[in-house]
Amino acid sequence: MTEVFGGEAGAALWAALAAHAEAEAPAEACGLVVRGRDAALAHRPARNLAPGPGLFLLDPATLVASRRRGERLVALYHAHCDAPPTLSAADRRGALVDGRPAWPGVEHWIVEVRAGRALAVVRYRFSAAAGDFVVARGPAPG
User: Fold this and answer.
1) Local structure of 122: helix, strand or coil
2) Listing from the earlier edge strand, what are the strands of the sheet with 41-46?
3) What's the predicted TM-score (pTM) here?
4) Which one of 49, 94, 123, 140 counts the least CB within 10 Å of its CB?
5) What domains sit in the chain, N to C, each tagged with a CATH number?
């Protein structure tokens, strides 16, 4: 895990992400990680509207509700079940518009699920220098 999951608040965030990913497996769970008005990180699960397995399409109602609460979007997350926690070609297509991030400054997190159990989260940030997403290090943005 990374610094994001340090301390009591981080442990609660990881537990929420893991529980959501495990409950939805083998489908890909998806949702938001946000900062509330109190600056704490919070988990907002979303419905996956994708038409088939191995895909995710986050329900936009979750984004709208988060915006109405005044939350700041930190990360979009989804699970990869029995697959590597790396951004797939489909993940990249959904995260980029004309080669630029669709959500500037927002990370993309993948929860690795193996045999129905959440094992880890890999965080990705867009790097202008690399022209692609790279593994994120350090604290979450915002």
Assistant:
1) strand
2) 41-46, 30-35, 72-81, 107-114, 117-127, 132-135
3) 0.91
4) 49
5) 3-135 (3.40.140.10)
